[in-house]
Structure formats: C-alpha cells, structure tokens
Amino acid sequence: MKINLVANYGLHASSLTLITQKLFLELGKLMNKQKSFTIAATMYSGAGVGDVNQHYDCVSIPNMGGYNFPPNSVTTSRNLFVGVVGIDEVVLGRKVFRSDKDWKRYKPIIETEVKKWKKHVKKINRIHTSTISDKQQIIDYLKVPEEQIDVIPYGVDHDMFKPAEDKSKTRKKVCSKFYLKNTPYFVHISETNWARKNTIRLFEAYKKARSAGIPHNLIVIGRNHELIHKKAQEVSGIIMCGYVKEKRMVEIIQGADALLLPSIHEGFGLPLVESMACGVPSITSDVFSPPEIAKDAALFADPYSVSDIAEKIIKFAKNKKLQEDLSKRALERSQYFSWAKTAEKLLKLFQENTENELDSDFNTDYDLAAYRTLTTVCQIHPHLKEQSRQDLLEMDYVKIINWAVTVGLDDGYVKDYLIPLTKWLEERYK
Questions:
Q1: What's the structural domain count of the chain?
Q2: Which partner from 151, 267, 308, 352 sits 20 to 30 angstroms from 182, CA to CA?
Q3: Residues 122 and 171 in one domain
Q4: pLDDT block averages, 10 residues each, the chain of length 430
Q5: Given this model, what pLDDT does residue 412 score?
Q6: What is the pTM of this model?
Q7: Domain span at residue 194?
Q8: How far is the C-alpha of 413 from the C-alpha of 424, rounded, in Å?
Q9: How far apart are CA 5 and CA 57, in angstroms?
Q10: What pLDDT score does 217 carry?
Q11: What pLDDT does 390 receive?
C-alpha cells in the first residue's frame, strides 16, 4: 500500500501542524517495522490530481481544521481519508469570532463549505475525528453519515511532556525567568483567536480569584491580539510571555499548579493532554471535548460564567489535597494517549477501507517513498545549514522523517538539495 500524507506546512506553529508532524513520524516508524506499506508527504499546494491518482493507493489529509471541505485536487483520488479537527465556526458561529466584522466576512464562506460537505461527502472513504463530541457535531452540522466516521484520539509526546524531576525547583526557575517572586502560578495556552479560547472571561475570573486572596500568578503562553495584551495590563498577576519554544513551554507547564483552559470550544484540546502528561491538572470547560478527554483529572466550569470559572480557581487554589489528587489522576489519564497508538489506528483505518490497490513491491516503493520524502524535506524546511545537508545524506528513513518534522518551513533552495539527495539514493540503492 502506498500512502500519501497531504500536509499544509505553510501553517503557523499550531496544533494542526503538530498533528501532521507527529503522524508523519509515527507512520514512518511503522513503515520501517512492518515493511508492508510506504508513506510519503506532499505539500498541500502540490497535491495535483494526476499525482495522487497515479502514485498512491490512498491519500490522507490528517488535519482539515474547521469547516473547510477538501480541495478538488484531492477529492478525485482513488481513496481519500480526511481528519476533521473541530468545526466550532459551524457549531457556534459568531461566538468564536473576535468581532462582528470577522463573522460577517467568514459567514458566507462557512455556509458555502458546509454545502460542499453535504453534497460531496461521498467522495471521501472515511472521516476520522478525535472525540465522540466532534463526531456528533460532524453528524449534526455537516450531515455526514455516522457509519462514515471513526473516532481516533490524538496523542502526546511522553518523552517531551513528563513531570518535573523537582517541581519546586522548576517553579523557582520559571519565576526567576519572569522576574517573579517564587510563588505558585497557573498557565494558560492562548492564541490570536481569543474569542474561542475565552481569554477575556478568564482574565475577569482570575481577577475575582486574586481579590479572594489566591497567591497564584497567571502565565499566558502564545501569540495574542493587542486587545488581550491591554486587558492583561489591567489585572495584577498576569504575565504575557508570547510565543515560546516547545522546551520552554514544557518547563512552564511542569512548574504550574494547573492549566486554565475554559475555552468556548475545544475540538480535542492538546494542551489538556500535554499538561496531564506533566502531572498538571486543568480547570477547563464543561462543554464539548474537555470532559471526555480529562474525565476525573480536572475541574469543570461553565465557560460563559465568570463567577463559575472564578469559583473553580479559588476551590482548587485553597485545597492542597484536591491539587494532589487531581495531579495524580491527570498523570494516570495521560497514559491513555500516545501518537504511536494514533498512528496504528489510522493505519488500520487505511488498510481496512482502501480499495483497488496498485501493484507494488516494497523495496522498489521504499526507494520512491524515500526520494519523495527527501524532496518534501527540501521544500518545507528553512535555513538548512551546510552541515545539516551533509547529515541528511547519512540518515535512514525514520531519521529523515524525524528531521523533516522538527526543523522548519520552506527556505526556497529546493533544487540545491535535490542534486546531492539524488546522488545519495543512487549510491545507497545501486
């Protein structure tokens, strides 16, 4: 079986990008282990009709975020699998848009895309989503038949996200970075769409909790709108740290007492799982996916009630035993999620629902997949240094994939890389 993962690497650093990266890596590992299929990647813009039909048994778009229907270039493929990551814009409309202006702009686009789903969904073999909650929304709002949808939870990198060896030491280190007294703190993972993340209500709730005497600061991670920065300045104890690299983000989470994520909508909620893997519980929304993901490892609040969010924050902050119990449950619950499990389930989905496979020989196809992967690597990663090019020539397939998903985006020097890579393939497989 030949599998093509269609990826939009032009996306900013986000959950959607992370999903594609992790699945690409784990499927590559399975390819080398099973030797029964090949996995290659194609840029979203390069997924031409002829290419996907001629060279692949199935095409997977693992991260169709929101309401968008797959483009015509892939809907004619022999077997198409689509991962839908939340349709909050369809379900909640104006509530998840920052302004009336934004909503007015996107509403007709959303309506058009929803019509496409209803009309052309039969072009897709199977649709997979990460929660039962999302599955029901896809059925209700996109009118996809229930039997066409599979629930495959996303994972977490347990090698990266794990409890701090010494939590008090980690907390002290984080506080020192932000010139804070060594006091406990909460963490909030935000984004530019503060409406969906419910950031303004969170700030109001946190202000109430501070007035009630809780000592916790609130560290906010992520790029944010200018309005949110202004709101943060009005509340004592809020630290806006902007975008941080993954290593620094993990450290901040590890030192926190809890993640505050009272979102209006979460399709899956990767921050929930990542925090749980660090032994850090959450105060999160009581609607959509968070109760399904966190279960008894979190406190749940009405995202539309500032008072309820504040009450849950105060309850957590003033009860040490509750903190310890939820932390233990969070770590236990996180073990249910792994990217390896996600990839295994996804591969099974492909294998059981792919028809009319092309004739293939693994050894020959492996070469082609390797070449295509290397080509993709060249296209999607910036600032490739001379030493990195040389290192690449000595990598096996898994290492190539690992390198590909961790370095960067398009740097514009594709042709310069293809010459030595072609030579490498010729020498390796002569």
A1: 2
A2: 308
A3: no
A4: 74 66 85 86 58 76 84 82 92 93 94 94 94 96 95 94 95 90 92 90 97 95 87 93 88 97 93 97 96 96 97 96 97 96 96 88 75 62 52 60 51 44 53
A5: 41
A6: 0.86
A7: 167-334
A8: 18
A9: 11
A10: 95
A11: 55
Q: What is the pLDDT of residue 230?
A: 92
**Pair (183, 50) in one structural domain:** no
Q: Pick the last residue of a domain from 299, 334, 369.
A: 334
Residue with the two structure tokens 């007015």:
104
Structure confidence at residue 12 (pLDDT): 44
Residues 116 and 174 in one domain: no
Give the whole-angstrom CA distance, residue 107 versus residue 96. 12
Torsion sign over Cα 360, 361, 366, 371? negative
The answer as to whether 223 is a domain residue is yes
